[in-house]
Design brief:
- It is a single chain.
- By secondary structure, the chain is an alpha+beta fold.
- It has three domains: 240 residues, 2-Layer Sandwich (BirA Bifunctional Protein, domain 2), CATH 3.30.930.10; 177 residues; 146 residues, Threonyl-tRNA Synthetase, Chain A, domain 2 (2-Layer Sandwich).
- The strands form four sheets. Strands 1, 2, 3, 4, 5, 6, 7, 8 and 9 form a nine-stranded mixed β-sheet that branches.
- A hairpin with a 4-residue loop joins strand 12 and strand 13.
- The longest helix has 33 residues.
- The radius of gyration is 25 Å and the shape is globular.
- It starts with a helix and ends with a strand.
- About 2% of the residues have low confidence.
- The structure holds serine.
- Serine binds next to strand 8 and strand 9.
Length: 603
C-alpha cells in the first residue's frame, strides 16, 4: 500500500536529492492570465520562467500543483477522469534536458527507494516525428540506455506525444510518456500497446515534456531560446495503479468522500447499479472540486460568470445527481467536511478557509434546492409536450427560462434532456444569453481551450503599471489597500482591491496623476532576490503565505532615493517606466461586498 502522502514525499525526496527546490502549489486561479479560467497543469504558473525569466529558487524546481480541468467533464463518473486533481511536477529551466530527465524518470519509477515498479511493467512512448519536428530518437535512446527494451518503446504522432503550446503561441515540444501495466501483460507491437492503453490495461502515469521549441505567430516551430523540462504525474492515478486499484475513487484522497456520499444515499459500496455508481462519483468529484475552488485564497464564490459559473455548475450538478441516488436534504456541507479533512493537510488554505467553504456551499444549496425541484417539473412538462414533435429538441427559450427562473446551468439542462432522448438548441441559447448579459458563456468556454500567459510587450508594460496603481491606491485612498485579484490582457489591466466604498472622481484623478508622475519621472525597475523575512523587512507588498518557497523576487520601482513601489512578484516587468506611455483609468466597478475593480489602459 502506498498513500498519496507517501507518493508526494518520495517525489520531493527524489527531486531534492537531484538538486531541485520544492515550490508551493500556486493558486487554482491563474494570475495575470486571461486565457484560461483555472490552472490546468503545474507548468501553467511557471510560464514566465519557461520563457526565460529567472526563478528566485533557481533552475531546478518541483511541486505538487492543484489543477482543474473541465474539458473532460462529461467523462467524469468513469474510473479515471477527475475535474480536480493533484499534479506532481519537476522542471528544468534551461538546465538539464532530455537524457538526464529520462534517467531521472526511470530511477524514480523503478528504484527500490522510490516507486520500485518492476521494469517489465513499464512501457514508454516517444514522438514519431513529422514536418514540424524530427522523430525523437534521442529520448528513445535514453530509455534504452536506462533499461527499457526496444519492444516497449513506441513512437506515436503529435496527437499523442506532443505538449503545448496551450494557446496559439509559446513553448512546446515533443513529450515522452510512461505507462504502467495494470495487468502483468506485455505488448508485442505498437498496435497492441495502443489497444492495451485504450482499454485501460496500461495506464499513463507520467508525462515528460521536452520543451525545445517555441511556436511563433506564423505557426512555425522554432528552436526555443531556452530548452526546458516540464513533467506531470497525476497523483490519484498513480496511487491507484500502484495499489492495484481499478479506479481513482478508492484512493485515499477520494475514498472517504465517496463513502460519505454513498452513506448519505443509504447505499453500500459494491452494491450499487452502474448509474448510481456514476452519480456517486460525479457528486464526489464535483464537490471536491467545489471545495478546492472555494478553499483557494482567491475568494471565488458561485456566480454566473467565469470561475464562479464553473463553481456553480459543479455544485448544482452535484445536487441534481444527489437527488438521483436518493439524497434529498441538504448534504453538501457534510461532504465538504470530509473533503476538508482529507485535503486540508495537503493544501493548508483549504483548512484555513473552511468557514467560507461551508457557508458558500450552504448558501448555494439553499438557493438551488427548491429551484431544482420546481424547474425539474417545468422541464418534464415541456418535454412531455414535445414528445410527439418531429424533432426531439428543447428550444432555446425553454432552456433559457430554466436558466433564468430556476438557475439551471445550460449544461445541466442538456444532460437532463439527453437522458430523456432530447437535444437542446444551445446555439440559439448562447445568442439569447449574449443579448441578456455582457459576457457570453461561449466567451467563458473559449477560455478553457487554454492558452499560455501572454508575455508580450504590452502585457509586460501593463504589469508594471499595475504595481504603480496598487501603490497609488495605498497613497491616495487607504494605506491598507491590497490586491484581491488581477488580470491583464494585451489591451488593458484589471485590478481588484479591498474598498468599502466607491472611489470619488477626485480620488480617481489623483490616482491616475500619481501613476503618471511615476511614469514621467523615468523610474528604474529593479529586481532583487531575497528571503521572505527580508522582503517583509524592506516593506515589500505582496503575498507572504508561501509555504516552502523561502526565496522571492522583489521588484522595486524607484528614481534616485524616491521609491514608488516595492512588491513581491514573479515578473516580468519593463526596465524603466518611461516605456509605459500614458496611464488612463477607464472605469471602476464593484465586484463583491468590500471589493472594487479598476480597469485601466496605457495610451
Ligand atoms: N504540462 C504537461 C502535462 O500537463 C506536463 O506537466 O501533462
Amino acid at each position: 500500500m502506498i498513500t498519496s502522502a507517501q507518493l508526494r514525499q518520495k517525489y520531493f525526496d527524489f527531486f531534492k536529492s537531484k538538486g531541485h527546490a520544492l515550490i508551493p502549489s500556486a493558486s487554482l486561479i491563474p494570475e495575470n492570465d486571461p486565457t484560461v479560467l483555472f490552472t490546468t497543469a503545474g507548468m501553467h504558473p511557471l510560464v514566465p520562467y519557461l520563457l526565460g525569466e529567472a526563478h528566485p529558487l533557481g533552475k531546478r524546481l518541483c511541486d505538487v500543483q492543484k489543477c482543474i480541468r473541465t474539458g473532460d467533464i462529461d467523462d467524469v463518473g468513469d474510473a479515471w477522469h477527475l475535474s480536480f486533481f493533484e499534479m506532481l511536477g519537476n522542471w528544468s529551466l534551461g538546465d538539464y534536458f532530455k537524457k538526464e530527465m529520462v534517467a531521472f524518470s526511470y530511477e524514480f519509477l523503478t528504484g527500490k527507494k522510490y516507486l520500485g515498479i518492476p521494469s517489465e511493467r513499464l512501457s514508454v512512448t516517444c514522438f514519431a516525428g513529422d514536418a514540424d519536428a524530427p522523430r525523437d530518437i534521442e529520448a528513445a535512446g535514453a530509455w534504452e540506455k536506462a533499461g527499457v527494451p526496444k519492444n516497449r518503446i513506441h513512437f506515436l504522432a503529435k496527437a499523442d506525444n506532443w505538449w503545448g503550446p496551450a494557446g496559439q503561441t509559446g513553448p512546446c515540444g515533443p513529450d515522452t510518456e510512461m505507462f504502467y501495466h495494470v495487468k502483468d501483460i506485455q505488448e508485442k507491437s505498437t498496435q497492441e500497446f495502443e489497444k492495451y492503453n485504450k482499454e485501460g490495461t496500461f495506464c499513463e502515469i507520467w508525462n515528460d515534456v521536452l520543451m525545445q521549441y517555441n511556436k511563433n505567430e506564423k505557426g512555425v516551430y522554432e528552436e526555443g531560446k531556452q530548452k526546458n523540462i516540464d513533467t506531470g504525474m497525476g497523483v490519484e492515478r498513480t496511487v491507484a495503479v500502484l495499489n492495484g486499484l481499478d479506479n481513482v475513487y478508492e484512493t485515499d484522497t477520494l475514498k472517504p468522500i465517496f463513502e460519505k456520499v454513498l452513506d448519505l444515499a443509504g447505499k453500500k459500496s459494491g452494491k450499487v447499479s452502474a448509474e448510481e455508481l456514476r452519480s456517486a462519483r460525479i457528486i464526489t468529484d464535483h464537490l471536491r472540486a467545489a471545495v478546492m475552488i472555494l478553499g483557494d485564497n482567491k475568494g471565488i464564490v458561485p456566480s454566473n460568470v467565469d470561475q464562479g459559473y464553473i463553481l456553480r455548475r459543479f455544485i448544482r450538478r452535484a445536487i441534481r445527481h444527489a437527488r438521483l441516488i436518493g439524497i434529498n436534504g441538504n448534504f453538501c456541507k457534510e461532504v465538504a467536511q470530509v473533503t476538508v479533512k482529507v485535503m486540508g493537510p495537503v493544501f493548508e488554505e483549504v483548512e484555513k478557509n473552511k468557514a467560507r467553504v461551508f457557508s458558500e456551499l450552504e448558501k448555494e444549496e439553499e438557493k438551488f434546492s427548491v429551484a431544482l425541484e420546481n424547474g425539474t417539473k417545468v422541464l418534464e412538462k415541456k418535454l412531455s409536450f414535445l414528445d410527439k414533435a418531429p424533432k426531439k429538441e428543447l428550444n432555446a427559450k425553454g432552456a433559457f427560462d430554466l436558466f433564468q427562473s430556476y438557475g439551471f446551468p445550460l449544461e445541466m439542462t442538456i444532460e437532463m434532456c439527453k437522458e430523456k432522448g432530447f437535444s437542446v438548441d444551445s446555439k440559439r441559447f448562447e445568442e439569447l444569453l449574449k443579448q441578456h448579459q455582457e459576457l457570453s458563456r461561449k466567451g467563458a468556454e473559449q477560455k478553457f481551450k487554454g492558452g499560455l500567459l501572454d508575455n508580450s510587450v504590452e502585457t509586460t508594460k501593463l504589469h508594471t503599471a499595475t504595481h504603480l496603481l496598487n501603490e497609488a491606491l495605498r497613497q491616495i485612498v487607504r494605506k491598507d489597500t491590497y490586491q484581491k485579484g488581477c488580470n491583464i490582457t494585451a489591451e488593458r489591466l484589471r485590478f481588484d482591491f479591498n474598498a468599502d466604498e466607491k472611489l470619488t472622481e477626485e480620488q480617481l484623478k489623483k490616482v491616475e496623476a500619481w501613476v503618471n508622475d511615476a511614469i514621467k519621472s523615468e523610474a528604474e525597475v529593479k529586481m532583487d532576490i531575497m528571503g521572505v523575512e527580508e522582503a517583509k523587512k524592506v516593506g515589500a507588498q505582496g503575498v507572504f503565505d508561501s509555504k516552502y518557497g523561502e526565496k522571492v523576487k522583489v521588484y522595486t520601482i524607484s528614481k534616485g532615493s524616491k521609491i514608488f513601489s516595492k512588491e513581491i512578484c514573479g515578473g516580468p516587468h519593463v526596465k524603466n517606466t518611461k516605456e509605459l506611455g500614458k496611464f488612463k483609468i477607464q472605469k471602476q466597478e464593484s465586484v463583491a461586498a468590500g471589493i472594487r475593480r479598476i480597469k485601466a489602459v496605457l495610451e
